Amino acid sequence: MKTMRMALAVSLMSLASIAAAQTDGVTVSTDPAKAADVEARAQALQDAQDKANAMKSEAPPHKHHHGKKPAGDKAE
After folding, report:
1. Are 29 and 35 in contact (CB under 8 A)?
2. Which stretches does the entry tag as region Disordered (predicted)?
3. How far apart are the first and last CA of the chain?
């Protein structure tokens, strides 16, 4: 009887987690205002990424200084 209760509890918990997972995430809407809002946000994100990539490509490469002296410049 105890194992039956445990199996039932596990089954109910797994069903509850499946139901919760289905309610979160992607939703479907036929509202044109919501669709326009999502498209505007997507466009803003794309513009920001394009701007960041453009800034990255325009920036001069960084020189790395390791603090090592060249082999010919040995201190005596």
Report:
1. yes
2. 39-76
3. 87
